[in-house]
Amino acid sequence: MNEEYDVIVLGTGLTECILSGIMSVKGKKVLHMDRNPYYGAESASITPLEDLYTRFSLPGSPPDSMGRGRDWNVDLVPKFLMANGQLVRMLLITQVTRYLDFKVIEGSYVYKKGSIFKVPSTETEALTSSLMGMFEKRRFKKFLEFVSNFDENDPKTLQGVVPTKTTMRDVYKKFDLGQDVVDFTGHALALYRTDDYLDQPCLDTITRIRLYSESLARYGKSPYLYPLYGLGELPQGFARLSAIYGGVYMLNKPIEELVMENGKVVGVKSEGEVARCKQLICDPSYAMDRASKVGQVIRVICIMNHPIKNTSDANSCQLIIPQNQVNRKHDIYVCMISSAHNIPTTGKYVAIVSTMVETSNPEGEIKPALDLLEPIEQKFVSTSDLYSPVDMGTESQIFISRSYDATTHFETTCDDIKDIYKRMTGAEFDFAEMERQKCDIFGDTE
């Protein structure tokens, strides 16, 4: 281990594994270590089911009704992939898709006044949705047509809207959309966690709604994809990519010290040996003195023997409870998956509820979601602190990722990856450039 590397990566969460793969492909000499004996860190999938009981300190073992423990792969962090989103683009460009199989999530739903409704995201669905009255349907249809045709470089499509100045609140007013429609548009289509976006320029929101619509158009049932056998397959896929390009992986490796000289990282000490490096990437748990707490998230894994009611018996779905519907500042998210994605055994369903903590009673905050899931056979409750780096890392050359937030998609994670990449290399993470270089850099390695 007493070698010098360009980059040492600590932790095998998805963020770290993607960056490790990208750096290896760019020709960097990479060493990747994790104190855990498994891939995925916070974004791991736990198997067998007995390990989930142990991890959450539940007494006893799973009942016989749960089937074989090794038939389960349960995510610790609930997230889906937007079919047209950034992570899918990264998977395609790096050809990590060769190691993974995906299935579309069957539905996307939103909560309104105690009931569950399918999210309308096309002009046709808007006209048949029971979420809105007849006149509101027409106004929403016109709004969706505006979003679909919107081109910031073509004044004819803007209808008087200034993309970088007109707020989203004003756009909603322009189309005379009511509060309930604003709620599901902002939170179930644009996927904002709070209402802060309303007074920001509208361009980002319109871009988000189009991403949702374009992702939906690819497969029809919902805009979301999910890997068979769980999210833990994603970091392993990027780990294989890194290994193909010379990256070295060491699991179950205790990290004793980050070795610094003149305020700059020069290596990592593990089991008495020092591996030297020029740059270091890590999750916050490896450099707590360089990260600050920015919030807390509660996640509850629920095992059930039935799908969520009023979702047309979908084998998988996302359900969003907009914050206004339950008098909160942050949305509540529910991701449900089944044996269709090889997560629980046949006949069982796993729903994971998550939200940002706002009070001293986190579990009470998600009661509206848990009520929708009853009866629940078994719950696994966790609250996790969210951390963010305290500096850019350019002086110390220690680049720390952000904790996984409560959102049920990977767009914010991809934003973090691009941000770290820019701080490390000084260059923007450019999808178009990577597409052009795919044949040269990401050539077929089989």
TrEMBL record:
What does the UniProt entry say about where the protein is found? Answer: Cytoplasm; Golgi apparatus, trans-Golgi network; Membrane
The yes or no answer to whether the keyword Kinase is present is no
Give this protein's Gene Ontology molecular function annotations: GTPase activator activity; Rab GDP-dissociation inhibitor activity
**Which topology term describes how it sits in the membrane?**
Peripheral membrane protein
Q: Does the keyword Isomerase apply?
A: no
Q: Which GO terms describe its biological process?
A: protein transport; small GTPase-mediated signal transduction; vesicle-mediated transport
Sum up the protein's function in the record's words: Regulates the GDP/GTP exchange reaction of most RAB proteins by inhibiting the dissociation of GDP from them, and the subsequent binding of GTP. GDP-dissociation inhibitor preventing the GDP to GTP exchange of most Rab proteins. By keeping these small GTPases in their inactive GDP-bound form regulates intracellular membrane trafficking. Negatively regulates protein transport to the cilium and ciliogenesis through the inhibition of RAB8A.
Alphabetical list of PANTHER family matching this protein: RAB GDP DISSOCIATION INHIBITOR BETA (PTHR11787:SF1), RAB GDP-DISSOCIATION INHIBITOR (PTHR11787)
Q: Which family does it belong to?
A: Belongs to the Rab GDI family.
Name by which UniProt lists this protein:
Rab GDP dissociation inhibitor
